[in-house]
Specification:
Blueprint lengths: L1 E3 L1 H4 L7 E5 L4 E5 L6 H8 L6 E10 L10 E8 L2 E6 L4 E6 L3 H5 L6 E4 L2 E9 L1 H6 L66 H7 L13 H4 L4 H14 L9 E4 L7 H12 L14 E5 L4 H12 L6 E3 L6 H6 L5 E5 H6 L1 H5 L5 E4 L11 H7 L6 E4 L8 H11 L7 H15 L6 H19 L2 E2 L13 E8 L3 H11 L2 H6 L9 H13 L23 E8 L3 H11 L4 H5 L12 H7 L9 H5 L10 E2 L7 H9 L19 E4 L8 H5 L4 E9 L1
Parallel strand pairs: 10-15, 10-16, 11-13, 11-14, 12-13, 14-15, 17-18
Antiparallel strand pairs: 1-3, 2-3, 4-5, 4-9, 5-6, 6-7, 8-9, 17-21, 19-20, 20-21
Helix pairs in contact: 7-8, 15-16, 17-19
Amino acid sequence: MSVLSVEELGSVCNREVRCELSLSLICLVPLTAGTGAAEVSRQQEEPSCLTKYFSAVWCKISKKKHKKWEGDAVVIVKGKSAVLKDMEGKVIGRGTGYKAKDLENLDQGQTLKIGGKEIEVLGVIQEEDFKSGRCFQAGGETLMETPNFSQSTVKPFCNPLKNICQTKTQGNLLKGSRNCKPRHDPCAPNCLVMLHPTINHQQKFNKANLPIVDVVVDPHIVNYLRPHQREGVIFLYECVMGMRANGRLGAILADEMGLGKTLQCISLIWTLLHQGPYGSKPVIKQVLIVTPGSLVKNWGKEFQKWLGNERIKVFLTDQDHKVEEFINSPLYVVLVISYEMLLRSLDQIQKTEFSLIICDEGHRLKNTSIKTSAALASLPCERRIILTGTPVQNDLQEFYALIDFVNPGILGPLSAYRKVYEEPIIRSQEPSATTEEIELGERRAAELTRLTGLFILRRTQETISKFLPPKKESIIFCRPTALQHELYLRLLRSQMVRSCLQGSLENSPHLICIGALKKLCNHPQLLFKTMKAMARVWRDGQKRTVHIYRLLTTGTIEEKIYQRQISKQGLSGAVVDLSKGSEQIRFSVEELRNLFILHEDSPCVTHDLLECKCMGKKDHQGLPEKLSVQEDDQLDQRRGKLISRKNLSMSQLMQWKHLSGEHESLPSLFLERIKGNITFIFQNVTT
């Protein structure tokens, strides 16, 4: 192959060539002898393999001179075919057999008929905008870039003589305006100063042209904040003030358990109740905190711990303290209520004007069809915060529900979200995905991460590991007791379980059966009692070494669920980085059959899956060194479709100690006491 420039092309006139035009060069290849002019002409008419994208308007085909366009659309042109998609990503027309030159020469103002529709081209869409899905975003909404947290702590522009902060664009203070001072010293050591609003923000939210004043978090609270908590307060402030997503006032704080989500919210509430960037006017007046019933009193204790009873009055709703008391009293500014009580008191709450809503354990709002989600969405408060350690549990539609609650409409309607983001991302994870589908899924995932990353903050316990004492974690496999074994077999033989394995899964009670077996594995009494929590003791403030014992019943559904947890990358990781992939969790009939099998011939099925040869010898680690990436992939592939890497993967268990229950002595007094029931142990120490 010879590569010629456009200038050199003119000198090549005495031989027959075939031209292939690319984005940056022209490749000229000599033709075989005997190729005639007709062949050259035919080859020149061959369609280009390049895909082009256009924005357009469409309507049904008619003979009317003046068209009545019905909506916007995206036209995808490749070779001699064209595909028409509406702004929700749905295909509404297809056409083939066009002349290649007609499609290659499409330009603004030109018309084309595609599958019963007529379109008029408005302009060209860049490939990146299509593959990222940006061209489908409703209204072409633009979002601000994620600000650097360090920018928010830079000392503000301030006149130290007058102790007045003002913007250069404002000039003199309004006539008759009082001197507005920051509530706390913005120049004090260790102070936490919020980001100054931009010019665009001032134009939108400062109609009265009030002076700009520093918002400084109360030093009383700042002294207790860890570095990651300071960043969290800044993040929440910028979100609810509309500084991160253009004009949007919602946020999701998705920190893992133990990082102090409650303290970060209390710091934000206390700050906004008394301060604001425009003329020191407070941003909020009343706050609604919705939480599981078991945590209502905990929120009251946290407010008391960090602020005391004399600074703020918090009303805790229960059977003896109704919402009417909060409404009729001028003393209270914060209402804490359970999700259940919210539904009972919805009429009264709707009559109260709340400036900020915080939903603790907000992942329960993942279903938009439940009454709780509908009730909260009906409240006319734009500033909304979700607190959750598990932002996505099953699929990307749940993720959409959380996003749409805090920032309604930012991802468009659900139908568009599914076509533009969910379906391409899931399709790209399938084994049969083509290179093009994989690339498209990755681009759409990256764009979804960019959009949501502006108002979602996720940190793991690694953030505070240096503040925590050592943790010794043991995964202990125990043989079921005689009663558990008998009840387990009865459940497996029940009509309900048998019906799960027959016919359609849509209406089968498989989730009920799985739940019953899980409870039975813990204790038979849990079939009649309730069971988010492990590892709550290993959190900020703990001083002693933490011992965590996770008890699993050998060979049961409990062990299989554990295998699924450590061998399948969950969608919770996708909130931080969707480009790493995500998929829906569904059970096939074959998977259910496997779940409902009781393995009675192995001390640890999980250890069997590792194909480890140690046989649980004392103080043995599966491998002396960490697996290479290639070995890790090969090990995962041998486990089947459900296997992929997570924080703790099947292959990483090889780095833990493997201990058989037959050892003469076990590494703790507690384990020695239950030695007769132990079949196998995985043990790890975190320092």
